[in-house]
Amino acid sequence: MCKERIKQLIERRTDQEGLTETGIQGVRLFRATEAIPCVPAVYEPSVVAIVSGSKEAVLDGHRYIYDDSQYLCCPMSMPVKAGTPAASIDDPLYGVFISLSQRVMTELALEMENVGGALPTVKGGLRAQGIRLAKWDEGFSDALLRLLMLEANPMDAAVLGDARLRELYYAILQGEAGKFARQAFGAGNAIARSIAHVSSHLDAPISIDDMASRAGMSRAVFHRKFKQVTTMAPIQFVKSMRLNNAAMKIAAGMTVNEAAIDVGYVSPSQFSREFKRMYGQSPRQWSSGHQVAIGSA
Fold first, then answer.
1. What is the pLDDT of residues 157-182, one digit of tens each?
2. Beta strands 36-43 and 78-84: pairing type?
3. What does the pLDDT look like over 108-136, one tens digit per residue?
4. Fewer CB atoms inside 10 A, N or C side of the chain?
5. What does DSSP assign to residue 175?
6. How far apart are CA 104 and CA 290, in angstroms?
7. Is the Cβ–Cβ distance between 134 and 68 less than 8 Å?
8. Could you tell me if 244 and 275 are in contact, meaning their C-beta atoms sit under 8 angstroms apart?
């Protein structure tokens, strides 16, 4: 019942393709009626919940297809490929995108640890892979509905928005992806902090030694733990973040040289070689073929 009411709220509010602001910080609705293949994107810390249709994300070869039975939890910035390959006018995609506040999620995770809250157990064990799917449980559905109902009244949204968003965060931390998210935001989240630093400093030189030092680990230990969390080696992750960000900037209209410099490349020829090696096209070919697709993913 909650999910159907959430769907109705989103359908009424989304009268155009793409993202629609709700007036609540970090909460956006979206609609897609066109099939878009998976293209490079960067998922910032977020939860993506689908109420109609399905969406797809690919991280380092691992494919995640999710619909109204599971939501996607991404507690750290991740270079992915994302798309809506099944969306159509007859079968539209409707959903909600919720940014995860580092500060609030960390506060909640630490409060839960301080009161002895046991980490949720996950059937078959837990293997951190950068992103995780979690089933829609009653706590998540109720909290999401209560949050979206605020949108009808700007005063309600302004006064109660932060509290309802905190309630939703708590439901996520209590849910099937809770252990995964609490490992990212709780005490000892050195890898998550390292990733946050990388994602906000792509235009600066980044060395693995510096990343390891920031995490308080030796290079070897950092490399092993980083790969456990993201499935990628640190240098592969940095390169993917840079190239995915560049692909998005080029598709949005930025020149190839500007995009290369903006994500930390000093040599345009090196940027072009690595871009073509990853995507099978030169940056200029990419620019002419992906203007629309990237914005709809």
1. 889 999 999 999 999 999 999 888 88
2. antiparallel
3. 988 887 776 555 544 433 344 789 999 99
4. N
5. S
6. 36
7. no
8. no
